[in-house]
Amino acid sequence: MTTNPNSGKTAIVPMLICCALFFILGYITWANGALIPFVRLAFNLETDTQAFLILFASYIAYFFLALPSSWILGKTGFKNGLVASLVLIILGALIIIPAASNLSYQLFLVAIFVQASGMALLQTAINPYLSIIGPIESAAQRISIVGIFNKTAGMIVPVVLGSILLKDYDSISSRIKELKAGAEHDALLAELSERLHGPYIGVAIGVAILAIVVFVVKMPEVDVNKEEEATDDAAVTSTKKTSIFQFPHLFLGFLAIFFCVAVEVMAGDIIGTYGRLLSLPPFFVKYGTTFTLVCMLVGYFIGIISIPRFVSQQTALRICTIVGITFTAISAFSTGLTSYIFVALLGVANALMWPAIFPLGIKGLGRFTKTGSGIMIMGIAGGAIWPLIYGYLKDTLHVDFQHAFLFAMVPAYLYILFFATKGHKIGKENA
Prior knowledge:
Number of strands: 0
Number of domains: 1
Helix content: over 70%
Mean pLDDT: 84
CATH superfamily: MFS general substrate transporter like domains
Order of helices and strands: HHHHHHHHHHHHHHHHHHHHH
CATH topology: Growth Hormone, Chain: A
CATH architecture: Up-down Bundle
Shape: globular
C-alpha cells in the first residue's frame, strides 16, 4: 500500500477508514438540525436564539480544542489520536442521557461540547491525513469523496431523529402551551426528553465499534514533515521559515473556513426554523436539514467529476461563492416554498467550499502542517457564532427573518470570494 503522494495514488485502507469516520462526524454534527426544534420544546426554551446555543456548544469546541488537538496528535500519532477522539464522542453521547432525564439544558450543552471536542480532535487528524495520502492536487477530490459519506449520514440523521424526537410535534407543542406549570406539565416534558435516550445509546455503541476497528486495523502513519517537504514545491521554501506566523495565507484560510462553516450551518441547521417562520407544514421543519444535505451531496459529485479535471480548486471556489450569493438573495426576496427551496439549494454552493479551502490553506506549510491544520480547524467556530448573530438580528433587533438571513450570509460569501481570488496567494513566493 502506498502512502507517497509522489506515486500519484491514494492509499486505499486509510481512505476507507476516513470515509467511516466522516460518516460518524456527519451523523453527530447534522443531528443539530433536528435537535434545535426539539430542545426548544423539551427544555421549554423561550426563543430560537436559546435553542441555537446547541450550535454554539457544538462548534465553539473546535476553536478551543483544535490547537491542543495538534499537540496531542504530535504526541500520540494519527491512529491513537483517532481512537482518543472516538472515546470523547462516546462520553458526550452518554452524558446526554442524564441531561435528558433531569431536564438540564446546561448539562445537555456540556454533553454536546464534549462530543464536539472529540470531533475537533478527529477533524484535526483526518483532514491533513486526506491531503497527504495522495497527490495534493487531488486533495479536494478525496475530501469530496469522504464528504459524500458525511452528508449521507447528515441526510439520514434528520429522518431518524425527526421521526423519533419530533413525532407529533404540533400536538405536543399545543399541549405544553395549554398546560400550566405543574406536575402534569413537567411530566410531559420529562416524557418528551426521554426520547433522547435510545438514539444516543445507539450512537455510543456504534462509535465504540468503530473505535475498536480503528485500533485493530493497521493504518500507516504519515510523516507530515517528510511528505510535505519532499513533495510540495512551496514546502521547500517553508524550510527556511521559523514561525507559523510567516504564512499569511494560512490565517486567511482560517477566516475562509470560519465563514465557510458559518454559511454551511446556516443553510443546513437553520432551515427548519426558517421553514417554521415561513409557516410551512411540519414536514419541512422536520426534514429541512435533509433537503440541504441532498443538495450538498449533488455538489460533492460535481466536485469529484470536475476537480481538477475541468476546473481548479480556486475556480470552483469562486463559482460557488457567486452561486451562494445569488441563491441567498433569491431566498430573501421570495416567499413561501420558493424561499425555502433556495435555502436548501445553498447546499450545492456550499459543498465544494471546504474541500477547496482546506488544501489551499495548508499548502506549502511543510513541517508546520500539523499546527496549520489545527488553526484551520479552529475556523469551524464560524458555525457557533453565525447562528447567534442571525438570532440576535431576528429576535433582539427584530429584523425580518429573511432579511436577517441575507445580512448574515452575503458578507461571509464575499470574504470567501476574496480568499478564492487573492487571499490564498498572499505570502506564497511560488503562488
